[in-house]
Write a structure and sequence with these properties.
The structure holds two protein chains of two kinds. Chain A has helices spanning 2-18, 26-37, 43-55, 60-102, 107-136, 149-164, 169-182. The longest helix of chain A is centred in the middle third of the chain and has 43 residues, at 60-102. In chain A, 79% of the residues lie in helices and 0% in strands. Chain A folds into two domains: 2-102, no CATH class; 107-182, no CATH class. Chain B is globular. Chain B is mainly α. The chains are: A mainly alpha, B mainly alpha. At the A-B interface, α1, α3, α4, α5 and α6 of A face α1, α2, α3, α4 and α5 of B.
Chain lengths: 183, 187
């Protein structure tokens, strides 16, 4: 039992270290380690887990680590997998932070940071596209035929309220969920 | 600025609970709470922390929680913010794991989630509009075009995020060469 928990921790430590960009980039890596190398899960079990991980709140990589860990090693396994999955990210983030703090006065460091800020904005925009496609279209391949007009209307109303009246964002997501029950 | 530790944990826990649709969604929610409502951080500080979180491997939501927590409350702040972000999905998955086949096929759950996806889209686009306004103020063609280049590279060419970040980090400081040349030219 202990050896399973420990190897789960080591596996997700690897996943955490090599998944730059996060989210969907981690799926092939987890698949390779969990299914191909260890044979801990079948492919259909894993596919179900991805779907569930998308349905529950939080980052996909965390959900997947918790789920896979739980399935293979119980509660201990889920704690080990989740901790392993986030450890390197947190440590390296803090190192990067300290590094930039050290060179605070340097103009080059300030420019590097501005460049990274621009890149992050572009990446967030790319994430927006995916989120909007998922919300507006009934199928994976977007076309005018399967554009859901009610979704677009609810979207427009909520966007207006969030932008103009600073509507609480959590409340906006909650309202949209309730509206979804009636579509 | 020192911020009450319990407030940090509570805020991140609550935000993470409603962070459907992936890690990026946490960003506009944090911004609304910490920048617009409580002014614990300014816009630029927050964007810098995101940029650093994105540059490290792993989940951007957890990494940025660690950095924001560290900046506002030191080591214990970082730990509390990370716990706040990780616990809700951890609990949700631990519970759902027992009956996930039922959840997969539940019509109500699927409708609820489809609806929430619309709300998430509204939140993200609203954030995107604000972000564009912020960068516009910089009035720098190079930084603006880096946004477009990063977006196109990620969205249409599916180029690895690490490469996009490295490219931007190298290209941005080149601007200094021009500025320096102008400086010496004036003298």
């Amino acid at each position: 039992m202990f050896s399973t928990v420990f190897s789960l921790f080591m596996c997700f430590l690897q996943v955490g270290l090599f998944s730059i960009g996060g989210g969907y980039a981690t799926i092939p890596l987890i698949r390779q380690i969990i299914i191909d190398n260890h044979g801990w899960l079948t492919l259909s079990e894993f596919t179900n887990m991805i779907t569930i991980s998308q349905m529950t709140p939080g980052p996909l990589a965390i959900n997947l680590a918790t789920f896979v860990g739980k399935k293979i090693g119980g509660i201990g396994g889920s704690i080990a997998a989740t901790t392993g999955g986030v450890l390197f990210g947190i440590i390296i983030s803090l190192l990067i932070y300290k590094c930039f703090n050290k060179f605070k006065e340097s103009r080059v460091a300030a420019e590097v940071l501005k460049g990274l800020r621009s890149a992050t904005s572009g990446l967030i925009a790319s994430a927006c596209v995916m989120v909007v496609v998922m919300a507006f279209f009934k199928s994976q391949t977007p076309s005018l035929a399967n554009l859901d007009i009610f979704s677009v209307i609810i979207f427009a109303i909520l966007l207006f309220c969030v932008q103009k009246f600073k509507l609480n964002m959590i409340l906006a997501i909650f309202i949209a969920g309730i509206a979804g029950l009636f579509i | 600025m020192r911020v009450p530790k319990l407030f940090l944990f509570k805020t991140f826990f609550l935000i993470s609970t409603f962070c459907f649709g992936g890690g990026y969604v946490i960003i506009p929610l944090i911004r609304r709470e910490l920048v617009e409502k409580h002014h614990f951080l300014d816009e630029c500080e927050l964007m810098d922390l995101y940029a650093m979180a994105q540059s490290a491997p792993g989940a951007i939501a957890v990494n940025s929680s660690a950095l924001i927590g560290y900046k506002l409350g030191g080591k214990s702040g970082a730990l509390l913010c990370c716990l706040g972000t990780i616990l809700p999905p951890f609990i949700a998955i631990s519970v759902v794991a027992y009956f996930y086949t039922a959840v997969l096929h539940s019509v109500i759950v699927n409708k609820l989630l489809a609806g929430m996806a619309i709300g998430v889209a509204a939140v993200m686009i609203s954030f995107m509009l604000d972000l564009i306004k912020i960068v516009w103020k910089e009035k720098c063609a190079l930084l603006l075009s880096l946004i477009v280049v990063s977006f196109v590279a990620a969205e249409f060419f599916k180029i690895n995020v690490a490469l996009i970040l490295i490219f931007s980090a190298i290209v941005a400081p080149i601007r200094l060469l021009w500025i320096k040349k102008e400086d010496t030219g004036d003298v």
